[in-house]
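Treating backbone geometry as a discrete language has practical consequences that deserve illustration. Part of our work consisted of pairing the sequence of a single chain with a tokenised description of its backbone. We regard such an encoding as a compact summary of how the chain folds. The amino acid sequence and the backbone structure tokens for this protein are reproduced below.
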Amino acid sequence: MSMDKTLRTRRGNSRSRNVLNRGERIARLQEEDRFAVGRSPFGLPKVRVQKALAGKKKKKTAEEGAAAATAAPAAKGKK
């Protein structure tokens, strides 16, 4: 059955997921050297999913704040 157009998203699933499928878990375990090649794919150990953290905004220093404050009135005067 096809999905209705109104239910689709443009970019797919853009949020971070907290559950991995079996293939993703095996790939992550192989990176950590916790999965042997001949091992059964059933009964895999838990794999921690790290959420991406948004970058924090840098605080303006006193010099940058003063430079921005002097540039703003100059820009308004040109209009």
